[in-house]
Amino acid sequence: DRDTDKKRIEELLEENMVLEIAQKQSMNESAHLGWELEQLSKSTDLADTRKSFVFELNECASSRILKLEKDNQSLQNTIQELRDASLTSRESSLKFVELEKENQQLSKKIEKLQNQIEKEKQSNQDLETLSEELIKDKEQVQVVMETLKADKDRQIKDLKQENDHL
């Protein structure tokens, strides 16, 4: 869009310059015709013709100048509108770039958080495995303790019997 706007602005500037050149030529023609009229006015028999011709020439030159000025103003307005559109486009582009940067930063944060979640999940799994192992070990220790208690009770009973026998 910006390239298109720049090309359009260049075209309008060229067209504006052409119109300005045409306006200058028209003014030069008008001045030259005015000079010719002055030369003709020196002859007395053409005085009335000169006046009407000057009047027509001035009217024609004035209307052409007005038309060129309107065209020039229209082109200036178009150029300004294109410049404004170009600025708006640049601002939008800058905002888009800023949003892209922010989006990248947020993506990095999300990735870090996902990595952290994965680490926490692995840690939880490790703790669950360790907990299960500890529960098994506890059960084994309880079985061994019950066996030892039964052995101890049996030994106490045997020792009491032996003591009673003695």
From TrEMBL:
Signal peptide: none
Coiled-coil segments on the chain, per record: 58-165
GO cellular component: centrosome; cytoplasm
Keywords: Coiled coil
Origin: domain of life: Eukaryota
Example GO biological process: cytoplasmic microtubule organization
One term of GO molecular function: dynein light intermediate chain binding
Name used for this protein in its record: DAPLE protein
Taxonomic path: Eukaryota, Metazoa, Chordata, Craniata, Vertebrata
